[in-house]
Amino acid sequence: MSSIPTDRSTWRALARRIARRLGGGDDAEDLLQSAYLRLAEAETRQVIEAPIPYLVRSAVNLGIDHRRRDRLIDNRQPVELLCLDMADPAPLQDEVLAARNRLSSLRDGLERLSPRTREVFLMHRLDGLKYRVIAERLGISQSAVEKHIARAMLFLTEWMEAR
Fold this sequence. Notes:
The protein has helices at residues 8-21, 28-43, 51-72, 79-82, 93-112, 115-125, 131-138, 142-162. By secondary structure, the protein is mainly alpha-helical.
C-alpha cells in the first residue's frame, strides 16, 4: 500500500477533515474506511500520486452520495407513515352495501316489468344492441323497441326514486 500513515492521530485528523467538508456528521470514520478500501483497490490498477487527497475526495463523494440517497429514501420514517397520503381506490364498506341494496332494488323493479319490455330493455342496456338490431331479432318494429325502452326507463326511474 502507499505511504499513508495509518496511526490513530493521522486517521482522526483525516476523519475531522472529512467531517468538516461534509458539514459535520458521525459517519466520517465510516466514509474514511470505505475510501481507504477504494484506494487500496485503485492502487492495484494504477499508481496514486496523492493518496491523502484521494482519500479525502473519495470519502466526501461517498458522503454526498449517501445524503442524496437518504433524501430520496427517508429511512427515519416507517413505510406505513409514508403511505398515509395514498388514497385507497376501493369503495368504503357502506358504499358497497348501498350499491348492493340499489342493485337488489333494481332487480326487483326489473321483475315487475312485462317479459317483452324487460327483454328489450336488457338487450339494449346489457348487450349494447341498437334499436334496429333488437327489432330485427324480435321481429317487431323499431318504434315498438323505442316504446318498450321508454316504458322500462320511466318505470325503473320511478321505482328507484321510491326506494
